[in-house]
Amino acid sequence: MLRRRFVASGAALALASTARSLAQPLPPARIELGDDVFLRSQWRDLGGRTVGVVANQSGVTSRLESIVDAIRRNGRIPIKAIYAPEHGFRGDRNAGASVASYLDPQTRLPVFSLYGAARHPTQGMLEGVDVLLFDVQDVGSRAYTYISTMAYAMQSARAFGKEFWVLDRPNPIGGTIVEGPVLEPAFESFIGLYPIAVRHGMTVGELATLFNEHFGIGANLRVVRMNGWRRSMIWPDTGLQWVQTSPNIPDWETTIVYVGTGLLDGAGINNGSGYTKPFFLAGMVGIDGAKLATHLNARDLPGVWFRPAAWSPLIGFWEGHEMTGVELMVFDPRAFYAVRTAVEIAVAVRDLFPHVIDVKSVSGLDRDWGTDTFRAALLAGESAEDILAQWNSRVADFESLRRRYLLYD
Questions:
Q1: What secondary structure does DSSP assign to 3-40, as a single string?
Q2: DSSP H helical ranges for 221-271
Q3: Scanning 125, 158, 162, 370, which has its CA 20 to 30 A from the CA of 281?
Q4: 41 burial class (0-12, 13-18, 19+ CB within 10 angstroms)?
């Protein structure tokens, strides 16, 4: 009897252990991505034509399958090549690091770099390709290179007679809030090609339509729309799982702050990049974090609280230096104005610790903000309200323009 009980007990434990070892099913998403729609039905419109795919590790379906793998599994979509943006096809290259072209060992497909010797796909890279598919997750900031890579690839598609399809994806920080400044043409760069707001509130498909029609790319463009996405949605509303888009954007929450604090490093303010909380930190060597936090909290900024913090970057220019400042505690991402917050931080540092900030020379600060008005206003001692107000008219013009190209309610 005791032996039977022991055996039964052992069997039950084994079954329980087996059940615990089984992976839980992935929760279903609440929207259908553009690549889901493409793979379900719209691929048939290719009519056997060959595709090349602009993608990285973030180009996955709602079931977390790489678009390249899904195309190969389909078996009826001829695929010729992969085109990799900054950080590479597998997302393993640091910011700004050149990416070489190579043969992908898993797919045996050529991977052509669009962040190396060439940033436009060349005629040779596009040989044998009829349609370029773009499937890369954006973060909602003008100052992020993926949308520039999309624009350059669209230009090449136009030049060499290829169709360009955007498999649309959500803007993780939503599609309702727009914040300036709007890029001035004199400050055009790879992190800002066209005069759009730094927080544009658009999807990559909407941006592609704007770039193509208003800014004159003129490609043969098709946007494969999502189903179920609404402008009021932020990332958690979609039910999708976040895949790290670049080394310093490990989770979707980082996108909320990146669009603001990502602009501060040109002013000499460390924003936590290269540390464990990228873009949630703001400070410098030798400032009083408690004093800065008290000042910023008194400003009553929506959706965020500041706490004193100290950290030492693990890599980069400030590696090993002890930084002091504040950590941004974003408790309401729907109410949070990231660019306004970045302006408030810069003004507070200037006013409280004038000896540690230096924006007198033209530098990457103007390129990052897309204007020299921010730097000039800081030097002139203007308030945060006045700095933001100077951008209002151009932001209003951009909002009027973008309404023509919005694809979702």
A1: HHHHHHHHHHHHHHHHHHHSPPPPPPPSSB-HHHHHHH
A2: 235-238, 252-261
A3: 370
A4: exposed
Domains for the chain: give ranges and CATH numbers.
34-168+203-231 (3.40.50.12170), 252-390 (3.90.1150.140)
d(C-alpha 391, C-alpha 401), whole Å: 16
Q: What is the pLDDT of residues 13-66, one digit of tens each?
A: 444 454 455 778 999 999 999 999 999 999 999 999 999 999 999 999 999 999
Quote the CA–CA distance of 42 and 206 in Å, as a whole number. Answer: 19
Q: How many CB atoms lie within 10 A of CB 375?
A: 20
Please answer whether residues 349 and 284 qualify as being in contact, where contact means their C-beta atoms are separated by less than 8 angstroms. yes
Integer Rg of the chain from CA: 24
The answer to whether the peptide bond before residue 181 is cis (omega within 30 degrees of 0) is yes
Closest to 374 in 3D by CA, of 190, 187, 178? 187
Based on DSSP, count helices (H) and strands (E) in the chain, helices before strands: 13, 12
| C-alpha dihedral (377, 378, 383, 387), degrees to nearest 10 | 40
Q: Is the dihedral of CA 400, 402, 405, 409 positive or negative?
A: negative
pLDDT in tens, 191-224: 999 999 999 999 999 999 999 999 999 999 999 9
Give the torsion sign (CA, 371, 372, 373, 377): positive
Q: What are phi and psi of 22, to 5 degrees?
A: -75, 135
Question: Alpha-carbon distance 307 to 329, whole Å?
Answer: 7
Cβ within 8 Å of residue 360, ≥6 positions away: 379
